[in-house]
Write a structure and sequence with these properties.
The protein is mostly helical and 436 residues long. It has 14 helices and no strands.
């Protein structure tokens, strides 16, 4: 594809993209929800999520070393299953989960920004600000790779440094205690603990966006895998320290009550109003860079799927390349989700779709590619087992708390697979006629 420029993204830029997506959603949007499910020891849940993520990342690293491309996950699935319904639908499901993540981050941007004005997270201004952020991400993503790389690298450094200051400052003020030990989440179960891990995996899944820039990263056969490892390591340290800092300054009940903006709430007792402003500022930087990086990755994946004729496409009279059109579609869908769903449901939808796709990918590698890419079978099996356990527990908890999330997820997955099946069959039938 002519818009992909070889060697246009450095290793540092790739790490910036990965950490940009992960930190944008994970710690700001999900910490409170993880605490609600996991209870007292929720900071440890992020460490467990990192361990599960590393096993999952093994497949992506091996695949990226073997097949670096702009298609990323789509390319991997095609290598495993061929250019058919499974690969197309699974790739599209991953793209949809990433778009869902964008709406999650967009709403988080709105929630944290409004803390400056003491406005509640239920305000209509939350989706308004979220849509405004998506509009900014659109402008950034039609401005070229170099600008996006520079923006992602700078904002990643700013937010990592800022969050580190928040974490160490919060721990220092609290003298490294655990205030959250004083409370306990309602109805805690083993299933709840495991379901909390599902949300932490969602917080880490941004590493997959790096694979979508494989054809543009310098020395991709080596640097894509390295960027994935570095990104996960950096974010693991950040998540555990921040969770510990929040647990040191708020009781568990307070964290749950302020679950959509728990970091901002934790800054109040630790640093006062100036700490609140600082934390909100970091949240704004993190969420803005997260959305920009995610749109960058999604547009490239879906453009590749279009070039491979695995998903339908219409220009609708728009000028420019297919990738630019995909930016438009991505922003429109993310904006609709930002308006229609709250943070909890958006996170749940994203977690379910991602885990299902992840299981399909690991299975494909285990069955069809492990010898070709020299992958260890026990690593693939372990990743599969972890995914199945975590997904099962998450579905069990949601079936009792919010069955609507499961119903919507099933409808989306069925629609994607049926739609892709119909499209591919129609294309195959029309192919011979169109070629005559």
């Amino acid at each position: 594809m002519e818009m992909y420029k070889k060697n246009s993204i450095t290793l540092t830029g790739a790490v910036g993209l990965g950490t940009g997506v992960m930190i944008g959603a994970g710690i700001f949007a999900l910490l409170g929800q993880v605490a609600e499910l996991a209870g007292t020891f929720f900071p440890i849940t992020f460490l467990i999520g990192a361990i599960v993520t590393f096993f999952s990342a093994y497949s992506y690293i091996k695949l990226s070393n073997a097949y670096p491309s702009a298609g990323g996950i789509a390319t991997f699935l095609i290598k495993a299953y061929g250019k058919g319904t499974i690969a197309a639908a699974s790739s599209l499901m991953m793209a949809v989960s990433m778009v869902i993540n964008e709406s999650l981050v967009a709403r988080t941007f709105g929630v944290y920004t409004l803390q400056l004005f003491n406005v509640k997270s239920e305000s209509f201004l939350v989706p308004v600000l979220g849509v405004a952020l998506l509009a900014f991400a659109f402008v950034m993503n039609i401005s070229g790779n170099r600008l996006i790389e520079t923006f992602s690298s700078i904002t990643s450094l700013l937010k990592i440094g800022g969050i580190a200051v928040f974490a160490f400052g919060g721990l220092w003020v609290s003298k490294f205690t655990f205030e959250s030990f004083q409370g306990s989440a309602p109805d805690q179960t083993i299933g709840g603990y495991v379901a909390a891990v599902a949300l932490t995996i969602l917080a880490f899944k941004g590493f997959t966006t790096i694979t979508n820039s494989g054809s543009e990263i310098v020395k991709p056969h080596r640097n894509v895998g390295r960027a994935i490892i570095f990104s996960i390591l950096i974010v693991t340290v950040i998540y555990v320290l921040v969770a510990w800092a929040v647990a040191s300054n708020l009781s568990l009940d307070e964290i749950i009550q302020a679950r959509d903006f728990s970091l901002a709430e934790a800054a109040r007792p630790a640093f006062g109003k100036y700490g609140l402003w600082f934390t909100v500022g970091i949240a704004i930087i993190a969420t803005v860079s997260g959305v920009v990086a995610s749109v960058f990755a999604v547009s490239r994946m879906t453009a590749m799927l279009t070039d491979m004729k695995l998903i339908p496409h219409s220009h609708f009279g728009m000028p420019g390349s297919i990738q630019k059109h995909m930016v438009v579609y991505t922003i429109v869908i993310a904006a609709a989700l930002t308006i229609l769903f709250d943070l909890s449901r958006i996170a749940s939808l994203g977690a379910i779709l991602y885990l299902v796709m992840d299981i399909i990918l690991h299975w494909g590698v285990l069955r069809h590619l492990r010898n070709e890419i020299k992958a260890k079978s026990y690593m693939l099996v372990t990743a599969l087992v972890f995914d199945v356990i975590v997904l099962g527990a998450f579905l069990w908890v949601k079936a009792q708390e919010d069955i609507v999330v499961i119903v919507v997820s099933l409808i989306m997955m069925v629609a994607i697979f049926v739609g892709e099946r119909f499209f591919i069959q129609s294309k195959d039938k029309l192919g011979p006629i169109m070629n005559e």
